[in-house]
Amino acid sequence: MNEQYPVIQGAEAFLLKGGSTGILLCHGFLGTPQSVRELGEALGKQGYTVSCPRLPGHGTHFKDLEKFSYDDWFGSVEQAYIELRKSCTSVFVIGQSMGGTLSLNLASRHPEIHGIALINPAIDIPQFETYRNQPAHAYVTEDAPDIKKADAVEITYDQAPVKAYQQLLGYMDAVRAKLGEVRCPVLCFQSLEDHVVPPANADFILDKVGSEHAFKRELHNSYHIASMDHELDSIVAKSIEWIEQAHVVPAGGQA
Questions:
Q1: 246: buried, middle or exposed (CB in 10 Å: 19+, 13-18, 0-12)?
Q2: Rounded alpha-carbon distances, angstroms, from residue 133 to 30, 173, 182, 199, 244
Q3: Partner of 168 at 20 to 30 A CA spacing, among 39, 72, 73, 198?
């Protein structure tokens, strides 16, 4: 299935070629690679090879979004991971919001992944439950992106199909059941004030994953889209520190 609308300028997938350690970035629901571009460029400057695919139906037009399922979204992430593995000896995955859900799913299927970092990951969003029983052909009017930083501008949609929300809900259900299969090191960044995903999601995930190395870092001055917020520099620094430390732990998470 193909998208019918062109990609919005700035929302394209990107690949930053570097050394033998790869980082796969996964953007969130209704977002685009633009939302994690600054994070990716900061990591690329440290010598990592950074890849960020654009999820199907994202970054074009909201009518494209209703054509795709969560299997399509995951397929694009898994393909980008496979491509990254061809040029990198180790790969870490960083996912924001639903990108965290995708990262957890990928890690459950690929135990060789060296570690995953999650930024305000989504596994249970009670405020979205109302969409389960709404007509799939309807549309939802979107609020402004949840970013504390006043001058941040995220490329996203002002409307979204109910069908897409139903896919998100189903995907969180499916991945929630697989958390125990995630055994690589896990780092979770959690904004204490998040108006989209309840902060309790992070604790739930860290409690349920099968990893022996799971850590949380709290964000005190960021909302949901933390990769575009006030603490981006801290996320970059702590991610690099974590990646360097995780390199001493074999893939699979066994010390």
A1: buried
A2: 20, 15, 31, 25, 45
A3: 39
Q: What is the largest CA-CA distance in the chain?
A: 50
> Is 0.90 topped by the overall pTM?
yes
Q: Indicate which residues carry an active-site annotation.
A: 97, 194, 224
| Interacting residues of 228 by C-beta distance below 8 A, sequence separation 6+ | 35, 38, 145, 147, 149, 152, 154
The label of the residue with tokens 């694009």 reads 76
Given the DSSP bridges, would you call strands 49-52 and 14-16 parallel, antiparallel or unpaired?
Answer: antiparallel
Angle, CA 221 vertex, CA 220 and CA 227 arms, to 5°: 105
> What is the rounded CA–CA span in Å between residue 176 and residue 104?
9
- Both tokens of residue 141? 């009017």
Both tokens of 19, joined, read 């050394």
User: What are the tens digits of pLDDT across the range 215-254?
Assistant: 999 999 999 999 999 999 999 999 999 999 876 554 444 3
Q: Residues 39, 232: contact at Cβ < 8 Å?
A: yes
As to burial, measured by CB atoms within 10 angstroms (0-12 exposed, 13-18 middle, 19+ buried), residue 80 is buried
